[in-house]
Design goal:
This protein is an alpha/beta fold. The protein has one domain: TIM Barrel (Alpha-Beta Barrel). Helix content is about 45%, strand content about 15%. It contains ten helices and eight strands. The protein has an eight-stranded parallel beta sheet with strand order 4-3-2-1-8-7-6-5.
Length: about 240
């Protein structure tokens, strides 16, 4: 079964939204810890992060949100954060506290794979990654490998990056770990396309946009993605 990952920024409403996403068919929820300089994030997630920070969402409060979300859902929860946040909070402390809150792993976007092996995390590779880099990231990833489908920032786009298929082919030739693809995936058609080549589909910016309309809207949006993915899987 192809996994569906939904990204949300940590805010007070996030536990309810995450529950709605799971009801709609999400298999994993990625919970963004807002940062003032979010690397590779497009305008949608930047605005959501700025709003969250203005509402007082610092690391400790985000961990509370993760714990509140864990009380509502049973799927894996993966906080997404940045090295500067872990540097300030403490790497070991973050691992201990996030696991105590119910997190399953982590994504640290700008932390090189060579550093801080005490932080179990999902590694990211991009179309520009060398084969040697893919090998290294696959060897040190926690559970699955995140394929960044394009070079650029996150955000809804009109089509799936043409570079994705080649990246999946290269990664599959080098590792047996599951491959989840994200960046630029926003419609059921996009999700179906990615489900045809990857093991997981990650939807971020569009999910954040829809979540602003409330849990009912998010639940229905996620359900459209789930139906599109399942239709592909059934034909394989």
């Amino acid at each position: 079964m192809t996994e569906l990952v939904i990204y949300l920024v940590c805010e007070p409403e996030t536990p309810e939204l995450a529950a709605a996403a799971v009801e709609g068919g999400a298999d994993l929820v990625e919970l963004g810890i807002p940062f003032s300089d979010p690397l590779a994030e497009g305008p949608t997630i930047q605005r959501a992060s700025e709003r969250a920070l203005a509402r007082g969402m610092r690391t400790g409060r985000c961990l509370d949100v993760i714990a509140e979300t864990r009380a509502r859902v049973e799927v894996p929860l993966v906080p997404m954060t940045y090295a500067a946040i872990l540097e300030a909070y403490g790497y070991d402390r973050f691992v201990d506290d996030s696991r105590a809150a119910g997190a399953s792993s982590a994504i640290v976007v700008d932390l090189p794979v060579e550093e801080h092996h005490e932080v179990p995390r999902v590694q990211l590779v991009a179309p520009t990654s060398t084969d040697a880099r893919i090998d290294l990231c696959a060897a040190h990833t926690d559970g699955w490998l995140y394929l960044v489908s394009l070079t650029g920032t996150t955000g809804a786009r009109s089509e799936v990056s043409p570079a994705l298929a080649g990246l999946v082919e290269r990664a599959r030739a080098r590792t047996d770990v599951p491959l989840y693809a994200g960046f630029g995936i926003s419609t059921p058609e996009h999700a179906a396309h990615v489900a045809g080549v990857a093991d997981g589909v990650v939807v971020g910016s569009r999910a954040v946009q829809v979540s602003e309309e409330g849990p009912d809207a998010l639940r229905e949006y996620v359900a459209t993605l789930r139906r599109a993915i399942d239709a592909v899987v059934e034909t394989v």
